[in-house]
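Here we describe the complex-level prediction in full. Unlike the single-chain runs in Section 2.1, the two entities below were treated as one system.
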Amino acid sequence: MVSFNRNLALEAPHIRLQGLGKTYAGGAGPVEALQDIDLSIRRGEIFGIIGRSGAGKSSLIRTLNRLESPSRGQVLIDGEDIAALDAAQLVRLRRRVGMIFQHFNLMSAKTVWQNVALPLKVAGVAPARVRERVDELLGLVGLQDKHDAYPAQLSGGQKQRVGIARALVHRPDVLLCDEATSALDPESTQSILALLRDINRRFGLTVVLITHEMAVIREVCDRVVVLDKGRIVEQGAVWEVFGDPAHPVTRTLLGERERGLPEDVQGRLQSRRPAEPGDLLLEVRFTGAGRREPDLLAITQALGAPVILLQGGVERIQGHAHGRLLLQVGDDGEDVPARLHGLADHVEVLGYVVPV
Amino acid sequence: MSSLSERLLHALLDTLLMIGASSLVVLAVGLPLALVLVTTGPGGIFQALPLNRVLGSVVNVLRSIPFLILMVALIPFTRLIVGTSYGVWAAVVPLTLAATPFFARIAEVSLREVDHGLVEAAQAMGCQRRHIVWNVLLPEARPGIVGGFTITLVTMINSSAMAGAIGAGGLGDLAYRYGYQRFDTQVMLTVIIVLVLLVTLIQFGGDRLARWLNKRG
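The structure predicted for the assembly as a whole is:
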């Protein structure tokens, strides 16, 4: 299944945006919601779009099924410009592109079963086929015992499962996720993300998701673009963007905590090397580039005693180690960072520790 | 001279006939009118602003005329439609004309309150506009529409009593002729009790139905 995805990745992009822009008429003049968006989404990948609120994520994902019409540029799906579609062709396109929403958008007056059946019903599918397909999908999302429940009787996670079943009922080859987990608790978020990944692998579905949560991107995405004020400020494989964020917005989204220093350490730090050599504070970073693994024995041996780990953590994203360690190490007056050459991606002296 | 209970029964049937006939027209015209008002408005699925403005003005004009005046003003029109300006059927015309825009505005509010996200979801799943009307707007607004129709019915009972005063028959006519013109307090009180019961029954039934239709939990 995985190799299936990889092979297809070499082909032409599934979805391509060229010079996309969107301008709204605002009260105080035109508002540029999207500007110069160029990106290619591969078939079968999970593609993340992240940004703060108001960055233009929602507008962007809505251009992919023409819920929103771009002011400039093109949206190409399988090489076809979707702006050129007439009403009937647009309906056909939307059956190939499923969508799920932050607030689920289920019909409150319809049962779970009727909600999932609706897209088929309006497409004029025969009742026997509808029954078969809806039962199959409710089984897939694990709601076979909720056929006759109304959405109000379900938990958030269950509602999103209904949303996913409804979005997949026409066997689409693209699934758009509009902040699909933002209204869910952490546990439901995990289970919905696992379901999305499962669906992506099982059906080779291209998934495009927007979110403001880095954790969601880290959990499921293959590639990511960072959007700020309607423009793409950074893009690449998730491990690259996370390992070495180039843009301040990406860093903000990643969380300042990864850059900041613990308060007590900050208080004991000075920027000048003291006359009497003491300890220094070293930041050792792993960005994932070159697939370097944090070799603790080699690091401690290279540094020499003392090596105190003040703070740190390493995560694995797509098989790449990513994280940073804050080390208090002995200062012998020589070039300490140079000793870690080849053992970490970035080494920096943050300051000198004042003895307590 | 017939007994009070006979007269009362007759008047009640007249009122029910008036309300029944008018309310069918009100529903059949008012609901589509409400749908047109909502869907042709700004951002609506059939956006057509000139039409929306014209219909909105017609509704507003009709709604701003007090029923008693509307009834009198409509007499020539009523005569044209039902051939007479007197009796139950003659009352149906002004009742319908007054209640239709009233109901249309209430139903419009319920339809407008349907979450736009649901319309968007329907569009995203490949619904055409007529599907959105049938599968999203109407079912989702149904509890509110039923509630609004209940209010309309009660208002129509009020108006029908007024129509009674100019010879439409029904409970209003009975109370007016016996209670007001002949100072027959017994008839007056009995009519009041019957009206209270009728309104209570309609309100109760409407509330129950609306609650049953509301699956929003």
